[in-house]
């Protein structure tokens, strides 16, 4: 990181050091607290599709399945995440997060990685069921919007603790992804298994909308989510996500009344 003014102002001097602190003494925030947009890819690993009962996807016959999460879904590393009252089936999804550094529209796939500022570890926390407390009809449309609503609660997109710059990640399609719940390994995969690569996701997103600096893209999750085995998060459970070279992301889920 280079301080503002360095190399451009002849009178610039580096700031005086103000002391040192142990990391445990500090509160680490998400690399970008309020991204311009939070995009996420659904069904981007064949094994994850299969564990949900889906048939293998033909990449040549479909487009990336992107959706938006609200800015309020961002959570800091180490932050507690409230379990929403409308769901008893809250789940985890370990993901590689892409941070856009240079905006654009209709970006060619072969130039897409030039628009990436860096990468981070993320968790697309998801409510697999919703109960709003009133009677509704049942249809595919309702199911879809319930699925989408399950992605939106506050804190359901923690990421960090680091933003590793793109030049330090030679190949974003060669990173291991793991997730533990209370120390038990639940997910273990690799970005090599993505259906749509980082470059393809960035390029496709830029066809739908203008990408802007600080946008983030969550790139999908490998197999091992709780829904596959009927195992869901309970208050007090701790999730830790690891992506090779990007650091560990740990968050605990709690009852809503435990959030200040």
TrEMBL record:
Keywords: Hydrolase, Metal-binding
Domain of life assignment: Bacteria
Segments forming domain Fumarylacetoacetase-like C-terminal: 37-254
SUPFAM superfamilies: FAH (SSF56529)
GO terms for MF: hydrolase activity; isomerase activity; metal ion binding
InterPro entries: FAH (IPR051121), Fumarylacetoacetase-like_C (IPR011234), Fumarylacetoacetase_C_sf (IPR036663)
A GO BP entry: carboxylic acid metabolic process
Family assignment from sequence similarity: Belongs to the FAH family.
Entry protein name: FAA hydrolase family protein
Organism: Jiangella anatolica
